[in-house]
TrEMBL record, chains A, B:
Similarity field: Belongs to the ROK (NagC/XylR) family.
Chain's gene name: xylR
Origin organism lineage: Bacteria, Bacillati, Actinomycetota, Actinomycetes, Micrococcales
Gene3D superfamilies for the chain: 3.30.420.40, Winged helix-like DNA-binding domain superfamily/Winged helix DNA-binding domain (1.10.10.10)
Name of the protein in question: ROK family protein
InterPro entries attached to this UniProt entry: ATPase_NBD, ROK, ROK_cs, WH-like_DNA-bd_sf, WH_DNA-bd_sf
SUPFAM superfamilies found in the cross-reference section: Actin-like ATPase domain, Winged helix' DNA-binding domain
Pfam family, one: ROK
Amino acid sequence: MSRTSNPIAARTASPVQRQLRPTAKVLPEHARAHNRSLVLGHLFHEGPSSRADIARSTGLTRVTVSDLVAALLAEGLVADLGVRAESRVGKPATLVGLRSSEHHVVVVDLADDATVHGAVMTLVGDVVVREHVTGAGATGTAAVTLVEDLCRRLVERASRPVIGVGISSPGVIDAGGRVVEAPNRGWYGEPLAARLTGVLGLPVHVANDANTRALGEYTYGGAAADAMIVTVGQGVGAGMLVDGALVRGRGHAAGEIGHVTVVDEDTAGETPEPCACGRTGCLETVLSAPALRRRTAGLTPQDADATLASVGRMLGRALAPVVSALNLAEVLLSGPPELLDGSLREAVATTLRDRTMPVIGHDLRVRMAALDEDAALAGAAVLVLSGQLGIT
Amino acid sequence: MSRTSNPIAARTASPVQRQLRPTAKVLPEHARAHNRSLVLGHLFHEGPSSRADIARSTGLTRVTVSDLVAALLAEGLVADLGVRAESRVGKPATLVGLRSSEHHVVVVDLADDATVHGAVMTLVGDVVVREHVTGAGATGTAAVTLVEDLCRRLVERASRPVIGVGISSPGVIDAGGRVVEAPNRGWYGEPLAARLTGVLGLPVHVANDANTRALGEYTYGGAAADAMIVTVGQGVGAGMLVDGALVRGRGHAAGEIGHVTVVDEDTAGETPEPCACGRTGCLETVLSAPALRRRTAGLTPQDADATLASVGRMLGRALAPVVSALNLAEVLLSGPPELLDGSLREAVATTLRDRTMPVIGHDLRVRMAALDEDAALAGAAVLVLSGQLGIT
DNA sequence: TTTGTAAGGAAGGTCTACTAACAAACATGT
DNA sequence: ACATGTTTGTTAGTAGACCTTCCTTACAAA
């Protein structure tokens, strides 16, 4: 074997260079914030607990937990709930609990072109106030103003301290809340989060609607840590969860699967249809809610089922490589149940199992998303919980 | 809109429950370890630097960096290189550098069924010693003993302190170095890392060979942080990098794309062939090195190119959903260049661009892997660098 | 009543990184 | 030649964060 051209050896003289990622230093206070999030996360997921419970769960000592809880009590995020009712051996525990109804989150969903939906929510996702504005056709700065006004009204109507604002929008959105590209609102490089923070004086988080849905399903809907949530509405999108974290991708466009080609000339029983994007045979031409309705309109239930199953098989074909490459635990379908939760979903499941090796397809679950139409709002709330409190 | 069945609201009484991941507490010493890795990582990627350089790069103060460097000097991981040659304004800087040739890593590659390849490497991936054992047919415990003996010999032949052992093996391997399933060696649930650590008294890291290749390409080969490295050899595998981290997947089987179905009855110009896995039309039946050689044997160069292009199109079809879902920056092909680096690679690239939306396919790169046949060994070394020094 | 167990708090110690201040060593301008 | 400004690396002191150890409180079980 010739080793002279070893590219590793060739680099020995000069160091191994790479575009350095902004790896952040860690200060003691960051450790503190992390452990604080651990405590909050425990209370969020497990409910009222004693300090000793939290200590066991987090691995921190009781002393440290007491200290953190004291700080949280002072902040008002946590409340003393008195002694635990059930009594075991030893000194009875005093419970502390997250004051989830004593803090509010303002959330906005921009998925609907005609109407902007907003709400005030508690930390556990209960809707306290609901508002909407009809902003048909508003684009550019006008659309930003629309969102601004809605947020302001919601903040005013919140009866508790508002922890932050979460916004779910279609389009390509970067981690800093800048809308890189959202054709439906005419936003290109719009610094939405920064602008709203300036106006409202509150932390604002913005993310793609398919991604927020995925977050919502993970936090409130029991989705697995390695999952794909396919959202079917006017278009088709997806949120990807890998190891419990949202995948954003190189250009912040992860999950944009609506315009993957799935219908070819040689696809049995199908003809590629033109897509709004200018190409043909895109997933959206067969799987979007309008496309599904159009394709099943006027058919007998049997024929409609067959049609839906056919679409399910196409989706399954497309997802099989994704499921295999990431070894996903779950594929969730979010959208109209009358279209998705039947032969379509079953066809996706069987196709995925047929087209992947057993170790991949064996314990893969294909199910409907657990959350209803408020999933995007709930996910927007998770943006805030995650960003401000570290709860995931 | 009916909101009564809101599953979020329904959960308000009980807390939001989920399978808790082992979220680790962070102690001051962990912060220290993290910052230490930051210093080492800077020296690894940027080469000899002054303490002030490191401080600017990491965001830590010069005082802290001096302290960390002092500790690393005491450990012998870093050396004082004297004053910088070029002189600028101000006090001349004293350079410190990673003593990459003064420490060794022992690496083993188990991809070859007939021979086990091993090497002693420096921290920058230079091969110092090369050894191999012919272990045709060794399985189960005998195969473990084979690896054990090879490691021991390599450790003995290492002329510098050995930081750890890295092993690259086909099969499904969990994060703790347990081989869940490796049919070629007859390993099922084999705790390889633990066993070797016990015998050698050194830190041992084990990972799937496609994954180690991906790590090697990332660290030594300049691969992007969001990339897929497709490895073509006896079979077909892949390593997935998302945000610079290896994806392991729900059942540690991420990257197992060799048995995704890519050939159907309706695939133009192709007939599904039976696969060793018992199904038909798997990616391995067309893309493995033997399959490619068989399909192109005896053909004119033009016909061979057409055949390779056809396989490239099939691969492109399979990868388009993956590239879209994750918004990957790069797809790397690792394997025989005479088969892959031509019409096949070009077909993959054009197919991917044709079948994805512009925002996804626009700046996607499809190229050959930068590292040669030692890529797996280099990746195994990265396992150790990453696990012991925190360098990625 | 005694014993054992568990919860929570107080005191003291160690570790970590920061700020402030300074000396050393050099380039540059007058 | 000499003062000035710049950059480096170190010393000293401070604040934060978590730990270990010990104590008190409160209850169940024997």
